[in-house]
C-alpha cells in the first residue's frame, strides 16, 4: 500500500510512504517544547474516516480547520492507543484548498 493515494480506511500501524488528501476537522493549540519547537495534533478526515495528524512547527502554526491538505511520504504510528499520521523528516504537508 505504500507510495499511492491512500484513504484513512486503508490505514494501520507501521505504514510508510503515505500519500493522501485530507480535510482538517480540528486543530489543537500548539504545545511549546524545549528548544523552541512546537507540536500540535489535528483531526483530519477523508470520505472513509478520520485520524489524528501530528504537526510540528512551523506547519502546526499555519494549518487551520477546513484546510484541505496533501500529505506526502508520511507514516503511521500509535500514540495514546490511537493511530496517528506523522510527517517526519522526509514527509511534506501542502495546503491544496479550503472547504467552504
Strand order of the largest sheet: 1-3-4-6-5
Class inferred from helices and paired strands: mainly beta
**SSE string, helices as H and strands as E:** EEEEEEE
Kindly state the number of beta strands: 7
> Counting H and I runs of at least 4 residues, what is the number of helices?
0
Low-confidence stretches: none
Euclidean distance between termini CA atoms? 31 Å
The biggest beta sheet, please? Answer: 5 strands, mixed, barrel
Q: Mean pLDDT across all residues, rounded?
A: 92
Q: What's the quaternary structure here?
A: single chain
Q: What share of residues is helical?
A: under 10%
C-alpha Rg (nearest Å): 13 Å
The share of residues in extended strands comes to over 45%
* General shape: globular
Q: Could you explain the architecture of this structure?
A:
This protein is mainly beta and 100 residues long. It has no helices and seven strands. The chain is globular. The chain starts with 17 loop residues before the first strand and ends with a strand.
What's the short version?
The chain is an all-beta fold and 100 residues long. The protein contains no helices and seven strands.
Comma- or semicolon-separated keywords:
about 100 residues, 5-stranded mixed barrel, mainly beta, globular
Task: Tell me the layout of helices and strands.
Blueprint lengths: L17 E10 L3 E2 L5 E9 L2 E8 L10 E13 L2 E5 L5 E7 L2
Parallel strand pairs: 4-6
Antiparallel strand pairs: 1-3, 1-5, 2-3, 3-4, 5-6, 5-7
